[in-house]
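User: Just a sanity check before I run the rest of the batch. Below are the structure tokens for the first item. I only need the designed sequence back.
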């Protein structure tokens, strides 16, 4: 009888302890996400939908509050502030941080490289490019995940671009490696935040911008530009960044859900993004506010020849950058579009 009573007491204590642990783990954890773009735009859709999916996946135990652009810091300081743990996560564009993390040029999509999200996914998860970029972000205490941006990413202009000489002497907004791309094509590169492009185009501060086709509707660029250049320079990517300390502090089960679930959540939102990009382009063209300007193949061949030295220049920055460029070059050979 005493043995049974002792066993009962032990089981009761264990049950109480287990319940206490579960109760402690079940508490709601609140994170803050610093937005790089207005929350209602397609650019932030990956972030908005990720927060919803993570809350659902964790049964409400992890809630993420999205802070508007500039709430905690400007977009160019996001990596610096996140490294310090000022906020927990962000959705942003690697092109803002190429000076701090050179590998972000590999992340955003090299000009005349990937043409579709499946090619980006293949490079990141099957060929090892994602490991290289992850290693670079990890040095800044950040966990990195790629997400699709626009599958149309090229010139928004008030003049047709049907040959490379049309760009000579023009001032074009471009970020990261696309600044060098613009310069190779004979134009001047200007860094203008996405939120300021509309007025810069309207006032004539810039003659055009390399920007995704979602911007035609999202930020109303269709009101201030007349032409969009095809084919695309690349399928570009955004990034979801998570402070590694914030991730480490999560209960083990939530940590697994966030680490493993994010990759697939973002693949879903990436497909939505690409669909919205196509819809924005079609709406702008069908309404008569924007015309498609097409570069013929002979001009594209000239462009590729001009772009190859940019890839080689990036490869010379470090052994890690060379490894990344080599991965993409091999992929392009495999796809029948060699860039060497």
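Assistant: Here's the designed sequence for the first item:
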């Amino acid at each position: 009888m005493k043995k049974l009573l002792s066993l009962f007491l032990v089981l009761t204590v264990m049950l109480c302890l287990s319940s206490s642990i579960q109760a402690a783990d079940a508490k709601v954890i609140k994170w803050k996400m610093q937005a790089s773009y207005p929350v209602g735009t397609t650019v932030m859709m990956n972030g908005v939908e990720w927060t919803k999916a993570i809350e659902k996946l964790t049964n409400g135990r992890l809630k993420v509050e999205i802070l508007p652009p500039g709430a905690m810091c400007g977009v160019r300081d996001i990596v610096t502030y996140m490294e310090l743990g000022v906020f927990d996560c962000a959705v942003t564009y690697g092109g803002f941080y190429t000076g701090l993390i050179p590998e972000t040029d590999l992340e955003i999509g090299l000009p005349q490289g990937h043409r579709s999200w499946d090619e980006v996914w293949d490079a990141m998860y099957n060929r090892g490019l994602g490991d290289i970029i992850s290693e670079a972000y990890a040095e800044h205490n950040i966990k990195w995940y790629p997400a699709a941006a626009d599958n149309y990413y090229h010139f928004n202009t008030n003049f047709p671009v049907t040959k490379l000489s049309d760009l000579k002497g023009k001032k074009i907004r471009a970020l990261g490696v696309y600044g060098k791309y613009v310069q190779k094509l004979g134009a001047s590169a200007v860094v203008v935040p996405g939120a300021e492009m509309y007025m810069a185009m309207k006032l004539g501060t810039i003659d055009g911008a390399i920007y995704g086709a979602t911007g035609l509707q999202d930020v109303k660029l269709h009101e201030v530009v007349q032409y969009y250049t095809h084919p695309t320079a690349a399928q570009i990517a955004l990034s979801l960044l998570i402070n590694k300390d914030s991730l480490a502090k999560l209960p083990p089960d939530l940590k697994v859900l966030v680490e493993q679930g994010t990759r697939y959540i973002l693949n879903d939102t990436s497909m939505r993004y690409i669909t919205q990009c196509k819809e924005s382009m079609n709406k702008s063209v069908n309404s008569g506010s924007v015309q498609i300007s097409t570069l013929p193949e002979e001009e594209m061949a000239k462009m590729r020849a001009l772009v190859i030295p940019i890839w080689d220049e990036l490869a010379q920055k470090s052994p890690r950058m060379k490894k990344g460029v080599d991965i993409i070059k091999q992929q392009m050979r495999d796809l029948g579009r060699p860039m060497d």
